Protein: histidine kinase
Amino acid sequence: MLLPGDTPRSVSIRYFGFYRLVIASLLSLFSIVGGVGDASSHLYTALMLGYWLTAVGFLLMTPKTREQFNAMLMGQVAFDVLVLTSGMYIGGAQSSSVPYLLMTTLAGAALVGEGRMVLGFAAMTTLAVLAELLVRILLRGVQTEELTRTGVICMGYFAVALLTRMLARRALEHEALARQRGAALQRQTEINARIIADLLDGVVVLDAAGRVRMCNPRAAEFLGCSLVEGEHIAHRAAELDAALRLQQSRVRVERSGKTLHLRRMMTGDEGDQLIYLEDFARIESQARQIKLAALGRLTANIAHEIRNPLASITQAAELLVDEKRAQMQQRLSRIVQDNAARIARIVSDVLEVGRRDRTVPELLDARAFVTHFLEEFALHSPAVSECVVLSVSGAPQLRFDRMHLAQILGNLLGNALRYCRRQPGSVEISITALDAERVSLCIRDDGPGIPAAQREQVFEPFHTTDPKGTGLGLYVARELADANAARLTLLDSESGAAFQLIARSVE
Structure:
């Protein structure tokens, strides 16, 4: 029976009671079989049998309150000391080991007791042993060395009591700390389990042998079956097991009618693996939402950008109807043509963004491709042959869509020529192999550069400082780079602007 709020002490006193019963049983057995002290005296045997019966009674007693607990402990220790010291006198101290047995009893009492009770137990035991010694001195007489032995034993009682109490207090503190941390760990485990259960993705944990260690309800929903902990995954979800063995990232589950995307992570040193199951329908829905949102923003920007040139065209067309002067008619015609060309460029750039996903990647020789591109670009922009310098390190190759790469180079080179100083070497194109899988293509110019306040906006659609530009060139270039698994970035540069395209050189 455990006391509310005092569980460790209640368990300890029960163990203490079992210890008392064992000692009483052994002493009773020895007294009956072998005899102690005076062989003709049955007083020792009767005392030990009475001690055994009392030990049984103590074991059956259950205190209800803390006060009853302390009173019960004090009474039991006092009875132990009285019986054992009486046994010392009856059996004869010269041949008795009871004084040392009292140390064990005192240590048990110190483990169960608290505060000053422990010193009280040691004092009680010392007084009882000294009283027994005094009685023997008066009635029988003792030798001098026995006085010394008894004094040392009495000092040992206090040492054992204090040391045991210190160890017991330390053990209780550690137990309380362990219980507190265990409760915190239990709460954290429950929170983690709730989070995992509410995840939109399925979660399955497998051990090194492929047996299920844990799964959440979403995984059972996606797989169309319930997984049993300890059972091999192949018994319930053979499709998932086959996909994991073949290291596939996608699996079709006919039972649930879902196509799942798999993500696998190894956890710990025992070979456990954590499997995330994502529903492709939800992934595609999210992608559609993102595309629709981006399309909405792009459409709004297109409408805003087209409105101004369209208004100019409309106004110029209305003036042309009433205008009779040839010079003014030519001027109004140029306005119509320039703004129509601006609208055409906007439409062309938007179409390029729309075709970004239709890539036909090829393994291109970087030097040959860029050299040929510069030759074609020079046909309508002669400044290329005067200002552009090409430097290639080694013989790098890159895997890219030919039309997309030409579009990116055209946008970047057009910007560089527009803002450079138009001197020999004003624009530098450098191609370098970063490693076995990546190639860097960098275009630098010696122009005024990009102000720090605008660096974060250079890749946003319709952001431009050129009144004749559409603001879609760099945006289209980055989108096409992303479509080819490449990365286009603006580099930090002390002078001018520098753009770097990092592309793959392998599949």
